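Thread: quick sanity check before group meeting

JM: Hey all, I'm pulling together slides for Thursday and realized we never actually wrote out the predicted structure for the chain we discussed last week. Dropping the sequence here so it's in one place. If anyone has concerns about the input, flag it before I start.
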Amino acid sequence: MNNPVIKKKSGMQKSFFERMAPVVFLGPAVIMLVCISIIPIGYSFYLSFQSYNLAMPASTVHFVGIKNYMDMLADKNFIASIQWTLTFAVVVVAIETVLGLVIASMLNSEASARFAAPFKTLLIIPMMVAAVVSATVWKLMFYPVYGVVNNTLSLMGFSEINWLGETFYAKIAIIIVEVWMATPFCVLVFQAALKTVSTEMIEAARVDGASGPRIFFSITLPTIRNFIALVISIRISDALRAFDAVMQLTNGAPGASTETIGTTIYKTAFRYNNVGQGSAGAFIFFVVVSIVAVATMLIMRKQDN
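JM (edit): ok, ran it. Output follows.
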């Protein structure tokens, strides 16, 4: 004979285990996130208000308030690195987006259908190579005496360029390397996006006499605008964090003209041993990235509306 009390008790036990299941499964991940992310960030924020120099004894650490933030904002090299990083991010993302759309459109055309697969394989190579390795290879190619780039320019009748020794050309070299490494990602995303464009609409537009550029700007671009917004958002956040290529190619030289925010913070904290000031710079960097991210989202939302 069924006992309603036992049924009620087993039902309560089942609901308890069901409620605890998310805690059991998500608990380790949350603990790991807190240990490797939240606690270090909180400790770094604490250090940003301290006078903390790695070359000095621990007893010399003391509270200085917002002095570290004021010192970083008063540092001309840090302000210049912010300006250069923002310029760098805008330029490389614009080039990568346009170049990615062009290459993806070419690979998506009927004329290049049989050659698309080999090109896709070649395009993935820059994404598979570590940024440090890519920058090292490009640094050898940019060498003024025996570099491949200058030798090619000489064969074409142009004068040699001191790529990594002059400010303007050093910045161009960094942009070239970044575009080379990141454009394949844009191509792959855009090629997948182009598959979502309605072929019926394109055929109808061709029947009505619309040209290729008109179809692209009136049908293709509006259809894939969300993919474009996604690529721009991801690439801006990545470009603002540029570090490996800059350190390997120029190490911020000539002078400090190619220092990015990331390299400036790293050198302040670990090369000049001023951890407190470096931590303050990191949180200023966080504010800059947040402002850029919010501005990008607002612009994209406005375009969607």
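AS: nice. The chain has one domain: 67-304. The longest strand covers residues 50-51.
JM: adding both to the slides.
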